[in-house]
Structure formats: C-alpha cells, structure tokens
Fold this protein.
Amino acid sequence: METRNRIVSRREAMAIFGLAAAPASVAQGGPQAKGKSASSGPNKPAKGKGIALQLYTLRNQAKEDLAGTLKKAREIGWEYVQWSGMPDLSAEKIKEALDAAGLKAMAVHTDMEGFEKDFEQTARFWKTIGAMDIAPGSMMKDCQGSLEAWLKGARRLDAIGARLRAVGMRLSYHNHSFEFEKFPGDNRNKLDILMESTKPENLCAELDTAWVFNGGSDPAAYIRKYKGRCPVIHVKDIAAAVPAGGKVQFKPLGQGALPWKDIFAAGRESGVDWYIYEQDAGDGSPFEYARASYEFLARNLL
C-alpha cells in the first residue's frame, strides 16, 4: 500500500497537526469511539450554540461580495457556518474573511479526492479554518453506477474517515433523494447500504431532512435509526415531496411540509449536536430566507 493511503497513528497525527495538547475527547473523536456517541467527537457546541448556516445558501451573493455577504450573515445572527459553494481561496484567506465577519467555520463540504491525493495537506487546509467536520456533497461520481461501485465508494469513505478520526476530525455523508433508491438485487436503499458497509466510528450520516423527506422517508425516523451517528444534520424545508425529476420548491424553515416538532425531538433523543440550515433556492432574497430560518431555529432550539 502506498504511504499516502496508509492510516497514520495517533502519535503521527499529533505530530503532523499539533494536536499533542488537544483533549482526549477531541483527539479520539468520532461516533461511538470507545463506546462514546458521536457527541464525544470534534466541534461539540457550547450550550445554545448548535445552529449553523450552510454558506451554499448565499453562494451567488458571495461571488459578488464575499466580505459583505459574510458580514450580513453575522448581522442576521449566525455565528457558525459550514463552508461550501464559496470562492476558491487559500485557507489563510478563508480564515481571515471569517474572522473579519465574526464567523466560525465548524464544518465544510468538500470532495474526497483531495484527501486521497494528499491527505496531510488537505486535512491541514480545513483544520486551518477550524472546520473539523468534513462531508462530501454526495457519493463520488465513479462510485454511483452499480452496487459494486457503491460498495467501493463505501470502502473509500471508510478509509478516509479512519484517517480523519486519527487527527481529531470527523467524516459524515450528506445525502440527496437518490440514496433512497435501490440497486437491483438488494432490498436495502443506497443510504442504508452505505451506513451498514462502513464503521460508525469512521462515517457519520449528515442527514439532509428535505432530501430524506423527498426520497419518501421520514427524516425523524432516520435520525432515530442512526442514533449516535448523526451529530451534524442539514435542516432544510420544502413545500412537498415531488417525483423523481420534478422540481423541488424550497422554503424557509417552518414554512414547508417537514414535521419539525418530531425532527427536533428526534434530534434531542439521538445526539444531534449541530443543525445546519441550508436552502438551495427560494423566492425573494437569500438574506431574507436566511433570516427567517435563523429566527425559526432560535425559537425552537436556542
């Protein structure tokens, strides 16, 4: 096996990333590590600080004015963000922009190939901005076409997750609707196959509530199903579920069809630490629906 693909030891990891002084609960993070739940892992929020904004929501505004967009997000009330869909910058420039706006990045959506090509550099990049929770936006494209390919993707994610866990970071998988479809010859849906084919300590489920709902499943039931394995979820609302290929109508939180009372109850029962709001599109200004959704989460969670 090539050196870049091997799992580094905890001692090596601490030397590489300067984690020698990190608390054991962080350095050993990951769901169910040594009998602990995912809440034992990195980025456990302070009381009342478990909500964040997926910056993909404001991607078009950030292309025109990143500094102004981040400042407006903070003015709305957001303090924590997930970095995604933003301009391509160095880690130092990203951290500088976030600091200037008074924001903290607790998570990121990024491709997995970077970790496979140069694990140390890629992990150091995201650690620099503080994003200790890592997630791909979907399964790698070359691992989607068949059950065999999907299982190969599961093995790749499991391996990356193990290496991230060794350096105090955590890997989750973000779903869309297609993960609730099935491969011929297997009665499980794709998401369940993935979760069953990876170790809980190496891969969490960053469940996206709207896509679970649109895929024909109950998001609260799925949060409970993966109790202890979904410390970070995406909270997203839609008007109604639509057939495959139909146009999804995204809504601010609390203005669509999702059963939020049950979702939040499931989150409390199942160890959800972070509720990350995301809205792919919508009527009016993204700042307006980001504000409405912040106020909804503040009323219900803070």
